[in-house]
Design brief:
The complex is a heterodimer of chains A (635) and B (262). With 635 residues, chain A is an alpha/beta fold. By secondary structure, chain B is of the alpha/beta class. Chain B has a six-stranded mixed beta sheet with strand order 6-7-8-3-9-10, with helices on both faces. Chain B has a four-stranded antiparallel beta sheet with strand order 2-1-4-5, covered by helices on one side. The chains are: A alpha/beta (635), B alpha/beta (262).
Chain lengths: 635, 262
Amino acid sequence: MAENTLPKLLKKNAEKYGDRRIAMRVKDRGLWQRFTWRDYYENVKYFSLGLISLGMKREDKISILGENKPEIFWAEIAVQAAGGTAVDIYTDCTPPEVKFYVTDSDSTFVVAHDQEQVDKLLQIKDDLPLVKKVIYWDPKGLWNYEDPILISFPNMIQLGKDYEKSHPGLFEESIENGREEEIALICYTSGTTGLPKGAMISHRGLVAIAQAWRDVDHWSDQDRYVSFLHPAWITEQAVGVAGQLVSGMEVNFPEEPETVQENIREIGPTILFFAPRLWENINRMVQAKITDTSALRRWIYHLLLPIGYKTAEYRLSKRRLGILWKLLHQMAHWVLFRSLRDRVGLSRIRCAYTAGSAVSPDILNYFQAIGVNIKQLYGGSEQGLVTIHLDGEIKYETCGPPMPGVEVRLSPEGEILVKGENIFSGYYKNIEATQEKIRDGWYYTGDFGYIDDDRHLVVIDRMEDLKELKGGRKFSPQFAEIRLRFFPYIKDALVIGGEDKDYVTAIINIDLDNVGRWAEARRIPYTTFTDLSQKSEVIELIKKDIQRINKFLPKWSRIKIFVNLHKEFDADEAELTRTRKLRRTFVESRYSDLITALYGKDQEYNMEASITYRDGRKGVIKTAIQINQVEEEIQ
Amino acid sequence: MNKQLSIKLKAIDICLNFGGVAALSDISFDVREGEMLAVIGPNGAGKTSILNCINGFYRPQKGGMTFEDQNIYHLPPHQIARLGIGRTFQNIELFTGLSVLDNLMAARHLHLRRGALAGAIYFGPARREEIRHREVVEDIIDLLEMEPYRKKLVGLLPYGVRKRVELGRALALEPKLLLLDEPMAGMNLEEKEDMARFIIDIHEIKQIPIVLVEHDMEVVMDIAERLVVLDFGKKIAEGNPEEIRQNTLVIRAYLGEEEVEA
């Protein structure tokens, strides 16, 4: 019989590998603690029985609120083994957000990481009548909490062990009763628009995605993965949870979110999945370190990097390199790329992935040049994994061809439609939205794109984010933004235009570290972020970057006016989503006066902004912002 | 002696003079088992001098000091540390050239039983001992959330983190009484909150009495169970936070002679 649910797959792996292979590693107390497949299975088993003994029923929903740790995986599979559905929630959600997710999903239990998360739940527990228990696994700071709603992870395991004595075989039976169409997960969409909706994902869908992905990239039990993306992301579920269960790979958990980079270097993963921003961060970090290093090293770096670019170009277009180039590349590998990759923990990497939002082709090119096989893919909570780059068929502008078993077509308006086992089963308690998004088995993604001659999918932007200038010419702000973000001095950018507007403008966030270092090297004194951003030298610096990308844009969509914003966009002020995507509509309305000024005649704009401090207090700051014109470069 | 309160440390009529200047005059107070006692007062009131008298840095001219009913008056600092009194300093005193881990391990020297030679060979009992000490240190790193800094040089760390390392080092002694000298001085609000949380955690998990010298009244009133207030080397009040808040002498010492609203 085929294993068509996650708990069945776990049971099979536990029988196959037992204590002989390591399933998980987590760094704790400075050491990598190991859990074999048997440990994994037994934790799941007793946790699951513990839940049942406390009154959990099939089809119950259980919210999980924690950082990536083995306990989160155990809890999730335990919930599914008891026939329930796991709902992962981001740990940086505020109590009202947590309340929304727990209430909307009708959760009957909440699994929480530590004191921080438990405090949130205790604060809102009176509004959560369905929640029977809050289970925590990190006891630090919770020793004196006496609320009867709380129970610790070890106590749950004990409850499970006791329950097994009176109900032997119940757990195995419960796994056997699992059906593939049962809902394994509810993933809340990250909410760039409106209230988050819970996308229901069945075991069948999740297993199909993971198996297809495994087959494409040949995942096996020899692979090592570092779990870092939050499990509320479908991608972490597809690689870290389901991907591990279908391939037997080893999953490693970092000690703390702050130690990820260090831990990756210790583990030397073969598979890694980073959001585009993290790849950008690594790239930025390397560039900054190179700027700071000795002149000789810098010279070697700049001398050998072009060899990497050339080799990558040939490899990706399946052309053969001449013997001389091969030798040069070998030399560059030993002198530079090998140690460079090791420094960032990517020395053994076989498959590096990125997805989530559009990523700059320059970034992908950079990593391919230093020998990291980075692939882009296209997917989401609702559509599952749709396309992925195949080895030797990588085109930076695209997201690769459709996965086996997935159909992709375009609507007449250019919207991407997806059909296959991988798409979700509907929105939880929202038939209207489901019917609107799934018609005749096709899921309407809301993404605008096209399919090129090699069947590769190119995703340009969200349908609703495409803009028109006066006269009806379409342009995609995001297209320019990601290219701006690649420059080391620009951290973020918002590109603006509209039907009532003649030209395109931009709001820029400078990168404090890199611009600060640049200013220091040139002895330009500055006090704060605001001060630095408005220095005339810095404005010139940013202007040059904008001129560079303007060259690649059609004339009408070139950026004519820009400002350096006096502060960084901030997720705490709702300017970015929790996955750090820009919330365009919100930001545009927040800075509407500034935007009006961009289309006016003034050279300066006086900003009066209310800001929220870290401790929750609010204040008003006044700043003069320079409005800057971008001249056409004289060729 | 008053036994039923289970007094951990007792200071009797401590007088400390620097030349003609009386830094402390006739200070008496107790530290009780498991309590969080704060010593507060305006600048120059003698708060740090009190801690220095307790752990033997200063030798008072007159008075008496007992710790666990043992006379510690005029004992040298290293012997007092050995008896189980750990402290942190207002101006951080760490080995800046060592990593966080090594700083904490160094603090375990009081508990080392094996000699230098056995440690160098790192075999058998010496090895087991080192592992045991490392476990204690790892618990402290976990408690104070110092994982990202474990192997970083102390000299390269930001001020707020160094304060934490110092607290960690005091804990590594496994003290029976912890003296903290302005653990929150010079920190921003977020760091202060973190530090307050760590102090409360330590108090809960270790169940040891803590004497806290602190400038920040808000924090002190929140976390201390009992306060001793000093002004110009004299004890002017003692009591729980509510009593201290109402005390007119304290209000006068902090806010001057002017009439203040209740």
